[in-house]
């Protein structure tokens, strides 16, 4: 059996891992979009022939894990796409939104490449490609075993608690007369997530493909999060009379923010200022979240029982209309604007940042991971100038960070997730979805925990196991 890594290899985005069995069956784990500056070429070519892939198994709906599925279909993939039912629901809105962004951004990207004397790119995919891809989705419930390749491979999902519907993928592969048990963790959630249940333990694996995003850091303790958020809101909107801009992923992160603000409002600790959720995608995702309360943890369910709705409070406004979104840029009064994308690489938040970044009364609050080569990454790093829509802007706004909102486990939480394994029985661990320096740090922690053969694959590197 061969495992080859075509994305999220010594970097965070573009998750794609290809398993080829002894009989030649090709199983692709995730098919994500590379995100950030200078990733356009990476998204054009897969490094393999899409038409040769037999099955796609999707861990969750985030665009860096699912965002290239329509292009895979456009380039010849015709097989089934297995995921949880909630992931299928979320992909139904997220892939159509991504197609719209691809169509909208291509002209701007090619104008830049034309000035640089580089080859022009073709459209990654359009809404028709996304619709054709969605027809291939095969929803499966957590714990339900399904079979690939005439029973050559058995697969089931367990809850990874990263976002709604996220899963760790467990494959039992018949190989040379023996069985190899492969687990792909997907992105590992947090045991104390504000909304979702805890991650599930999982059976013993021989081979682990493990994410490592926060393999070198610890999150702020959860009890301090609300107080920290309240201080930022008060400083920006009350003392400075400014705007608080929050780039946030439309799925899970936005809902966590709404829930936190709802709690502050219910307890009388939120100033009476307007809060705008300026993202049609986030609005749709919030509705899908409400329809899937079965995956919520007991604390939020108890809160909903008392409060009635964890995602609605006075002065909260959901904005879908484009003109209403544009009007937010001319408003002078203090407010909070939460908008996608989380890495500030596309969507309405990029316009809001452009219009307010040079205003010293503005605060931009980062609430999760941002790849270094993204606008959010540059702001988080402390760059004094940033490039937005091809123009340079001075960063006069205050930049704040609240990593506790991250849906990724920190290194202690990831080690806790892996504690269900007998490390001495794991033959190989492959670290993916992390920056290289972070992966090196996490590798040392894994070795200390007893995992002996830990690899950090390079892009396109393959291993026979």
TrEMBL record:
<feature type="domain" description="Metallo-beta-lactamase">
    <location>
        <begin position="13"/>
        <end position="228"/>
    </location>
</feature>
<dbReference type="Pfam" id="PF07521">
    <property type="entry name" value="RMMBL"/>
</dbReference>
<dbReference type="InterPro" id="IPR011108">
    <property type="entry name" value="RMMBL"/>
</dbReference>
<dbReference type="GO" id="GO:0004521">
    <property type="term" value="F:RNA endonuclease activity"/>
</dbReference>
<dbReference type="GO" id="GO:0016787">
    <property type="term" value="F:hydrolase activity"/>
</dbReference>
<feature type="domain" description="Beta-Casp">
    <location>
        <begin position="254"/>
        <end position="379"/>
    </location>
</feature>
<dbReference type="Pfam" id="PF10996">
    <property type="entry name" value="Beta-Casp"/>
</dbReference>
<dbReference type="InterPro" id="IPR036866">
    <property type="entry name" value="RibonucZ/Hydroxyglut_hydro"/>
</dbReference>
<protein>
    <submittedName>
        <fullName>MBL fold metallo-hydrolase</fullName>
    </submittedName>
</protein>
<dbReference type="Pfam" id="PF00753">
    <property type="entry name" value="Lactamase_B"/>
</dbReference>
<keyword id="KW-0378">Hydrolase</keyword>
<dbReference type="InterPro" id="IPR001279">
    <property type="entry name" value="Metallo-B-lactamas"/>
</dbReference>
<dbReference type="InterPro" id="IPR050698">
    <property type="entry name" value="MBL"/>
</dbReference>
<dbReference type="InterPro" id="IPR022712">
    <property type="entry name" value="Beta_Casp"/>
</dbReference>
